[in-house]
Design brief:
globular, 284 residues, single chain, binds 1,3-dihydroxyacetonephosphate, 8-stranded parallel beta barrel, binds zinc ion, binds glyceraldehyde-3-phosphate, TIM Barrel, 14% strand, alpha/beta
Length: 284
């Protein structure tokens, strides 16, 4: 199959009350792990490329790997730009073959975020590509701020209503207590806020920084309208720990396949687990 759009996947998820996993990919082994997990669980899946992935692998390599993966499987696969930084980058990715994009204007004042998102939407609509935007600031666990300070950056439900009405964006990333990277403690989600946002905006909600969020909190968030769950850090952890284990056991190992093969298997296992938590297994 060629790439599917993310809107279609999230529409089915909305009807079925589950979420689709959006997994960050940086190299061939991780692409293969995501597809192997999706096939084993019979799940629709979103491959996504971050700014770091684009810098590391390049847009063309990412598209080529993802396209081959999508064409060689029967499960629906979308390719999504994660945290797109500019109109120009979004255009480059669409031209290269991405089926969905995120434009992250969350650092901009509301009006500018709306303007940028609208501009991207007008162009993306013309070529049948879905668009994710971000309102509120999700940030990273390394940003040295305490939880009470982070709350100042949480998504305001009323603002979300204005944003979605004015832009017509397809799905929205919200800040409700998650952060990118490894958490120091256990993150607590502001579920009442999520419920309020969802009652105002009606479109699918995206949860970023989902690695390390307790499984039950993820399930509660899905119950309240999260339909796309982004996972990167947990894949990195599984991948790197497995590679490290091989090298710790045999410091003389020089065959990359003996290091990266087990890493790929470990990544597959964690992705399968996530898919089952999101409830997207057997939905392909
Ligand atoms: O956006 C979230 C990613 O986990 C950050 O990824 O380090 O590949 O840019 P990056
Ligand atoms: P984690 O790395 O915390 O899983 O976040 C991934 C993400 O939100 C990508 O956009
Ligand atoms: Zn993110």
């Amino acid at each position: 199959m060629s790439f599917v759009g993310v809107s279609e996947l999230l529409r089915d998820a909305e009807n079925g009350g589950y979420a689709v996993g959006a997994f960050n990919c940086n190299n061939m082994e991780i692409v293969q792990a995501i597809i192997a997990a999706a096939e084993a669980e019979k799940a629709p899946v979103i491959l996504q490329a971050s700014q770091g992935a684009i810098k590391y692998a390049g847009i063309d390599y990412i598209v080529a790997m993802a396209r081959l993966a999508a064409e060689s499987t029967r499960v629906p696969v979308a390719l999504h730009l994660d945290h797109g930084t500019s109109f120009a980058q979004v255009v480059q990715c669409i031209r290269a073959g991405f089926s969905s994009v995120m434009i992250d204007g969350s650092k901009l004042p509301l009006e500018e975020n709306i303007e940028l998102t609208k501009r991207v939407l007008e162009m993306a609509r013309a070529v049948g590509v879905s668009v994710e935007a971000e309102l509120g600031k999700i940030g990273g666990t390394e940003d040295d701020i305490v939880v009470s300070e982070r709350e100042a950056f949480f998504t305001d439900p009323e603002e979300a209503g204005v944003f979605v009405r004015e832009t017509g964006v397809d799905f929205l990333a919200v800040a409700i207590g998650t952060a990118h990277g490894q958490y120091k403690g256990i993150p607590e989600l502001d579920l009442p806020r999520l419920e309020k946002i969802k009652s105002v905006v009606k479109i699918p909600i995206v949860l970023h920084g989902s690695s390390g969020v307790p499984d039950d909190a993820i399930r509660e968030a899905i119950r309240r309208g999260v339909r796309k769950v982004n996972i990167d850090t947990n894949i990195r952890e599984a991948f790197t720990e497995a590679a490290r284990k091989v090298l710790d056991a045999n410091a003389n190992e020089i065959d990359p396949r003996k290091v990266l093969g087990p890493a790929r298997e470990a990544a597959t296992a964690i992705i399968r687990e996530k898919i089952r938590i999101f409830g997207s297994n057997n939905k392909a």
